[in-house]
Amino acid sequence: MTTKLGSTVIRISVGSTNPVKINSARQAFLQIFPNHTIHCEEMHAPSGVADQPMTEADTRLGAQNRVRHCYEHNADRDMDFFVAMEGGVDKFEEGAATFAYVAIMSKEGELMIGRSANLPLPEKVYQRLQGDEELGAVMDDLFHTDNIRQKGGAIGLFTNHVATRESVYTQALVLALAPSLHPEHYQ
């Protein structure tokens, strides 16, 4: 962390150019570190998985791959944290659902993983996803929206915007940061 004008600046590399993911990272770190200035830099980071991950394992792997890409491409070694999010879908005992995995890496290389809650998906949506469509495109079609993935997402649409893609990512990131707040309990 660097000091700037009397406040501490936390520099974060976010493995996405999606404004929702960048804002989620900023909001999570502002909640955890309210007396700091949070500086986020976006970076295209490949997930190494399908554009629409269809299993929990692939979703987790996508987040991990993105965060590792950010960490490995920090040539100046000037970032404090690296953050990545990957939204995915899977079929559970309760039915199909969408969720996200988040990955945070400290500048020392400590990896922290978190997961969001599930949003149940209608069977007709899940069937379209199995046909190689992406959730954002399916939602845009069903709700007559445009580029919902960079706005409230399926979560916003199905909850009447009580929750949003950003709020769910933010919560998952806050929870994943617990080990960095209390390392003495997470050894």
UniProtKB/TrEMBL annotation:
Binding-site residues for substrate, renumbered to this chain: 16-21
Concerning InterPro entries, the annotation shows:
ITPase-like_fam (IPR029001), Non_canon_purine_NTPase (IPR002786), NTPase/PRRC1 (IPR026533), YjjX_NTPase (IPR050299)
Identify which cofactors the protein needs according to its UniProt entry: Mn(2+); Mg(2+)
Q: Which residues bind Mg(2+)?
A: 78
Annotated GO biological process? nucleotide metabolic process; thiamine metabolic process
The Non-canonical purine NTP phosphatase/PRRC1 domain covers 15-180
Task: Cite the GO molecular-function annotations of the record.
Answer: ITPase activity; metal ion binding; nucleotide binding
Relay the cofactor remark from the entry. Answer: Binds 1 divalent metal cation per subunit; can use either Mg(2+) or Mn(2+).
Q: Which UniProt keywords apply?
A: Hydrolase, Magnesium, Manganese, Metal-binding, Nucleotide metabolism, Nucleotide-binding
Q: Which SUPFAM superfamilies match?
A: ITPase-like
EC category: hydrolase
Reactions that this protein is recorded to catalyse: XTP + H2O = XDP + phosphate + H(+); ITP + H2O = IDP + phosphate + H(+)
Enzyme Commission number(s) from the entry: 3.6.1.73
Q: To which protein family does this belong?
A: Belongs to the YjjX NTPase family.
Outline what the protein does: Phosphatase that hydrolyzes non-canonical purine nucleotides such as XTP and ITP to their respective diphosphate derivatives. Probably excludes non-canonical purines from DNA/RNA precursor pool, thus preventing their incorporation into DNA/RNA and avoiding chromosomal lesions.
Q: How does it assemble?
A: Homodimer.
Q: What is this protein called?
A: Inosine/xanthosine triphosphatase
Organism of derivation: Marinomonas rhizomae
Upper taxonomic lineage? Bacteria, Pseudomonadati, Pseudomonadota, Gammaproteobacteria, Oceanospirillales
